[in-house]
Specification:
The chain is an alpha+beta fold and 136 residues long. The chain is built from three helices and five strands. The chain has a domain of 90 residues: 2-Layer Sandwich (Alpha-Beta Plaits).
């Protein structure tokens, strides 16, 4: 069972949280420099739609996204616009519904990078700016 994020009130539309793992990306740094701007545009578009919870580099050869969607089919539709999915970048895409059992220290999401610089994304650091997670 996936984490229920919100409903339209009529019971018709349910938004769920999905984890998307783009894995085993050979020559990740090189490809990121080639497709990075288009990927950032894609991510900012998802963010403006209110569908992107987070995205980050997963190890040295992958990416992890948490996105809101109505169904697995909706996730697949969203990913058709992701340059890392439609381009020759990822050798595997893993999609799983996500049920959050514990929400820990959210401040860890906003820590500084190892070089001491602030994270480059323009994100809110206030927990109150995030929609509450409701369990089904």
């Amino acid at each position: 069972m996936a984490c229920l994020l919100r409903s339209d009130g009529s019971g018709d539309i349910t938004k769920l949280l999905f984890a998307v793992l783009l894995n085993d990306i050979a020559q990740f740094a090189e490809l990121r420099s080639k497709y990075g701007d288009k990927r950032n545009e894609f991510l900012m578009s998802l963010n403006k739609q209110g569908r992107l919870l987070l995205e980050g580099t997963f190890g040295e050869r992958g990416c992890l996204m948490l996105i809101e969607a109505e169904s697995l089919t909706d996730v697949l539709s969203v990913l058709q616009s992701d340059p890392y999915v439609v381009g020759p970048i990822s050798s595997s895409v893993l999609i799983r519904s996500l049920d959050i059992n514990v929400l820990g220290n959210t401040e860890l999401l906003f820590r500084t990078r190892p070089d001491g610089d602030e994270p480059s994304q323009n994100v809110s650091r206030k927990l109150s700016d995030f929609r509450p997670l409701n369990r089904r």
